[in-house]
Design a protein that fits this description.
cytoplasmic vesicle, two-stranded antiparallel ribbon, Acrosin-binding protein, Proacrosin-bd, 90 residues, 53% helix, signal, 2 strands
Length: 90
């Protein structure tokens, strides 16, 4: 274990910045979704990128316990943003 107040190791810094980079990107994408909605062309491009070029048609079922059901991918993505479950898949 490292002493409190000492710098992170190279591996710890890499993990820290990878986590920070992912978190900031996801929160930025969520902020865009909340501001502009799912009809915005940038938000749609992000959704397409996440799904290999095609936004899945609804309904969407997720890996959440209790068989969570969403009417469309936009609703599912907004739920992930609100709950901060960025890597939840359908």
């Amino acid at each position: 274990a490292q002493q409190p107040g000492t710098p992170l190791s190279d591996q710890e810094y890499q993990h820290f910045f990878n986590f920070l980079r992912i978190t900031i990107q996801e929160s930025t994408a969520c902020h865009l979704r909340e501001l502009y909605g799912c009809k915005n062309s940038l938000v749609q491009r992000l959704d397409e990128y996440e799904n290999h070029g095609v936004i899945p048609p609804g309904p969407i079922c997720s890996e959440l316990p209790g068989n969570h059901f969403f009417h469309n991918f936009c609703t599912f993505s907004l739920y992930r943003c609100i709950m901060k479950k960025y890597f939840l898949k359908v």
